[in-house]
Amino acid sequence: MKVAIFGTGYVGLVTGTCLAEIGHEVTCVDVDEAKVEALRAGRVPIYEPGLEPLVASNMEGGRLRFTNDARPAIEANEIVFIAVGTPPDEDGSADLKYVLEVARTIGRYMAGRTVVVNKSTVPVGTARLVHDAIGAELSARGVAHDFEVVSNPEFLKEGSAVKDCMHPDRIVIGAEKASSFEKLRRLYAPFVRNRERFVEMDVTSAELTKYAANALLATKISFMNEVANIAERVGADIEMVRKGIGSDPRIGWHFIYPGAGYGGSCFPKDVQALARTAQKLGMHPELLEAVASVNVRQKRHLYELVERHYGASPTGKTFAVWGLAFKPDTDDMREAASRQLLEQLWGAGARVRAYDPEAMAETRRIYGVRDDLVLCESAAAALEGCDALVIVTEWREFRSPDLELMRARIRDRVIFDGRNIYDPAEIEDGGIAYYGIGRGRSI
Ligand code: NAD
């Protein structure tokens, strides 16, 4: 099938590439000229495991193209995806300006029967706005074309996006027309051998499904962080508590890991946007507001542990920081817990020697060159001349501590483990003070 995708970010680029991989002919459209130029030259601007070779082979196979030119992409394709960003507005609502801009562009150039598929995370009612924006352009042109705006929220996870796209848990489709359901079922069929993985519903329910999923996951994290803070004060170990509850199948093991707070481009903004939707309906979304505020507090917690250890602001100290991306296997630093920590350390007059396997260029892009930030080429190099180590992202390569090296290089012999990747007893037996999240016995 012939498909156009607007937006070549994490969602658009991965979706477009995976659709090309299963044999569709895909045109990816982006307004960012530098991005399109890079992609055409075979440079993938984001880090996502397995993505680069797939982009290369599908470009070579002539199934995947990149362009800034919207018109031919819309004219030539029966299915047009919208996968552009929906960042938070000043009041926390989802800002739909990019989505509606694409909608107007689609209306301007639509040349025949089209299914417009919205993959961006958007509030309930957006499909209607997109429909109206396209309709207004068509009327202005004095033409009429048969089109439907379908909701197809995306559930891929950064860090395993290609795998998630190729082997989805479910594909949610919200539409009205049987022909639209049928078209999307045909498009996605090679990804899903079991038909029950298609979850078909009305547009409004599909739009709400995405927010419900992200808000529930964020709720699990904030819940565990709140209990971790209780554990810390009563002298319990949250890791024991986690093991004690996760084995209950009603609770499950996923998303009950306490840590330095959730980040990324989705959870913070989606929880906020759903809360705003509720407020606009005259409701008071107490739970969603609490989930968000627990997370804001939690992102400050690592720094609080630092202050607690030193009994004062760590002015003049040098911190090795391991992990800058908001989670492992990505270079994305949007809303990352590391940013809160770096900024608090700098605010206190401390210096940072940082290392991340993938997010170094992104860190440089965000913070530029500054005296109090040294980007190091390895985790071991970051420890050189540091007073303390803080772990913010649980990359696999940090998981086996080299205690001898740590003891030799960390001057104040203290580790702040924002992801509970170490056994406190092992670190302490190695002669290093240890602070985790919710690990009362180590405080
Ligand atoms: P992104 O910021 O990585 O990419 C968005 C892209 O859209 C950019 O390349 C931008 O240049 C482009 N763009 C903006 N306006 C455009 C226009 N008028 N025409 C063409 N391109 C345009 O965003 P993302 O992380 O891929 O997220 C996209 C949407 O998917 C958001 O609504 C997000 O909430 C949702 N989502 C994201 C993830 C994720 O893990 N990142 C997962 C599920 C859903």
Question: What report would you give on this structure?
Answer:
- This protein has helices spanning 10-21, 33-40, 51-60, 70-76, 97-109, 126-141, 161-166, 178-188, 203-234, 238-246, 267-280, 286-299, 301-310, 337-347, 360-367, 379-383, 403-409, 424-429; strands spanning 2-6, 25-29, 64-67, 79-82, 114-118, 147-151, 171-174, 198-201, 318-322, 351-355, 373-375, 388-391, 414-417, 433-435.
- The mean pLDDT is 96.
- It is built from 18 helices and 14 strands.
- The termini are far apart.
- By secondary structure, it is of the alpha/beta class.
- The protein folds into two domains: 2-201, Rossmann fold, CATH 3.40.50.720; 231-442, NAD(P)-binding Rossmann-like Domain (Rossmann fold).
- The strands form three sheets. The protein has a six-stranded parallel beta sheet with strand order 3-2-1-4-5-6, sandwiched between helices. A six-stranded parallel beta sheet has the order 11-10-9-12-13-14.
- It is globular and about 75 Å long.
- Nicotinamide-adenine-dinucleotide (NAD) is lined by residues 6-12, 29-32, 35, 83-86, 98, 101-102, 120-121, 154, 156, 158, 265-266.
Annotated CATH architecture of the largest domain: 3-Layer(aba) Sandwich
**What is the highest CATH level, the class of the largest domain?**
Alpha Beta
In this entry the ligands are: nicotinamide-adenine-dinucleotide
Percent of sequence in beta strands: 5-15%
Query: How many structurally independent domains?
Result: 2
Low-confidence stretches: none
Mean pLDDT comes to 96
**Radius of gyration from CA coordinates:** 24 Å
